[in-house]
C-alpha cells in the first residue's frame, strides 16, 4: 500500500472540505483505514477495498458533514457498521462525544478494537438494535449513512434525542420520494448538498429536527 499518496489524498481533500486536521489526526485516519483493510480480509466489513477509494468514499465522505454539524457535543452514529461516519468524526473532532451503535457483533467487535488501537477516548461502542438502544442522557444529534430510509430512520432513532435534537441522514441523490414520507414527529430543516473531493457522485445531508 502506498501510504504517502493516501496521506496526500486525505490532506488535500480535507483542505478542500475546509476541515482543519493536525498531522496526528491525519495519521490516525490512515491508521483506521489500515485496520479496516486488515480486518476486512476476514470480517468483510466493507465492499470498498481499494485504499485510494477508501480515502475518498469512507474518510472524506464522512468528514464532509463536519462543517455542517454546528455546536453538537454528543452524537450517535446508528448502523455505524465499521464506524462510518462516526470514527472519522471522532478522530477529527476530539471534543465531540460519539456513540457508535450497530446490531452486528462482528461490526461492533471491529469498532471496539479500532477505538482501542487508535486511542479514541471520546468514542464508545454499543452492540444493540437502534430501536432498543437507551442512552443515559439524550444526544444532541443522531447521524446515519446507508442505514434506512428517512421515515424508518426517524422511527427507529428519534427517542435518542430530546425535542429540538437533530437527526442527520447522509444520502446520495436528493431524496425527493423519501422527503414526502417524513413522519409528523420530525420537521425538515435542510437538505445540504455535499461535495466530496474525488467523488463525482451526488451527496446530500438531510437535517431533521425532532418535535
Ligand atoms: C449498509 S451498513 C452501513 C454501515 C456504515 N454506516 C457505512 O456507511 O459504511 C448498515 C448497518 O446498519 C446495521 N443495522 C441495520 N439495522 C439496524 C438496527 N435496527 N439497529 C442497529 N444496527 C442496524 C447493520 O448491522 C449494518 O452494519
From TrEMBL:
Q: Which GO terms describe its biological process?
A: methylation
The top of its lineage is: Bacteria, Pseudomonadati, Pseudomonadota, Betaproteobacteria, Burkholderiales
Where along this sequence does the record place binding of S-adenosyl-L-methionine? 79, 84, 102-104, 130-131, 145
Q: Which PANTHER family match?
A: S-ADENOSYL-L-METHIONINE-DEPENDENT METHYLTRANSFERASES SUPERFAMILY PROTEIN
Output one GO MF annotation.
methyltransferase activity
- Note the InterPro entries from the entry: rRNA_ssu_MeTfrase_G (IPR003682), SAM-dependent_MTases_sf (IPR029063)
Could you list this entry's UniProt keywords, alphabetically sorted: Cytoplasm, Methyltransferase, rRNA processing, S-adenosyl-L-methionine, Transferase
Name the chemical reaction catalysed here.
guanosine(527) in 16S rRNA + S-adenosyl-L-methionine = N(7)-methylguanosine(527) in 16S rRNA + S-adenosyl-L-homocysteine
Q: Any idea what this protein is called?
A: Ribosomal RNA small subunit methyltransferase G
